[in-house]
């Protein structure tokens, strides 16, 4: 790639789980850290979020466990269509994506990945940043999350 993803930008491992409360306790015990607070995002209309090119409407329970220079992020999806629900139905629990912060190269990387045939599964914007889930399961065994900044 002309715009390779730098390993120094590795920031996240996101895992889809059936029961976030149990998973958070188990991961915390494994790492010897406090159990993180679980955030519950109910389904809502969000014009800055798409799933497979259409407006997304889904809820999610999530939490972060800090691990050195990256986070282990746990996601429990609701029953609405989302990249997280799609993964759970297709694979069961497991690693949904690896997250990389790429700075100002975000658009160039996304463009190059699209030219290589990768589809953008989910795109979300929020104040000061964005996140893009690249549908790369079939080729890489895991999706990618490309972020300009954390």
Structure commentary:
It is a single chain. Strands 2-5-6-1-7-10-9-8-3-4 form a ten-stranded mixed beta sheet. The protein is 23% helix and 39% strand. The protein has helices at residues 20-31, 83-91, 106-115, 137-140, and strands spanning 10-16, 39-41, 49-51, 54-55, 60-67, 70-77, 94-101, 119-126, 129-135, 143-147. The protein has a single domain, classed as 2,3-Dihydroxybiphenyl 1,2-Dioxygenase, domain 1, CATH 3.10.180. It has four helices and ten strands; from the N terminus they run βαβββββαβαββαβ. The radius of gyration is 15 Å and the shape is globular. The chain is of the alpha+beta class and 150 residues long. The mean pLDDT is 95. The longest helix has 12 residues, at 20-31.
Offer a concise description of the structure.
The protein has four helices and ten strands, in the order E-H-E-E-E-E-E-H-E-H-E-E-H-E. It is of the alpha+beta class. The longest helix is centred in the N-terminal third of the chain and has 12 residues, at 20-31.
Helix content: 10-25%
Q: Examine the secondary-structure arrangement and name the CATH architecture.
A: Roll
**Count of discrete alpha- or pi-helical segments spanning 4 or more residues:** 4
Q: Biggest sheet, in brief?
A: 10 strands, mixed
List low-pLDDT spans.
none
* First-last Cα distance: 23 Å
Round the Cα radius of gyration to an integer and report it: 15 Å
Mean pLDDT: 95
**Total number of domains:** 1
CATH topological fold name? 2,3-Dihydroxybiphenyl 1,2-Dioxygenase, domain 1
Shape: globular
Element order, helices and strands?
EHEEEEEHEHEEHE
What CATH first level would be assigned?
Alpha Beta
What's the CATH superfamily, by name?
2,3-Dihydroxybiphenyl 1,2-Dioxygenase, domain 1
Proportion of strand residues: 35-45%
| Structural class assignment | alpha+beta
Total beta strands: 10
Q: What topology, given as strand order, has the largest sheet?
A: 2-5-6-1-7-10-9-8-3-4
């Amino acid at each position: 790639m002309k715009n390779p993803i730098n390993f120094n930008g590795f920031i996240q491992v996101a895992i889809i789980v059936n029961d976030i409360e149990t998973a958070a306790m188990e991961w915390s015990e494994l790492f010897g850290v406090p159990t993180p607070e679980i955030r519950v995002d109910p389904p809502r209309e969000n014009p800055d979020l798409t799933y497979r090119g259409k407006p997304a409407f889904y809820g999610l329970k999530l939490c972060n466990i800090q691990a050195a220079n990256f986070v282990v992020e746990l996601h429990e999806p609701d029953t609405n269509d989302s990249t997280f629900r799609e993964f759970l139905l297709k694979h069961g629990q497991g690693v949904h994506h690896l997250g990389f912060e790429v700075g100002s190269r975000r658009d160039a990387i996304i463009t190059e990945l699209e030219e290589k045939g990768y589809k953008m599964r989910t795109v979300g914007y929020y104040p000061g940043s964005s996140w893009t889930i690249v549908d790369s399961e079939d080729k890489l065994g895991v999706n990618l999350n490309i972020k300009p900044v954390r």
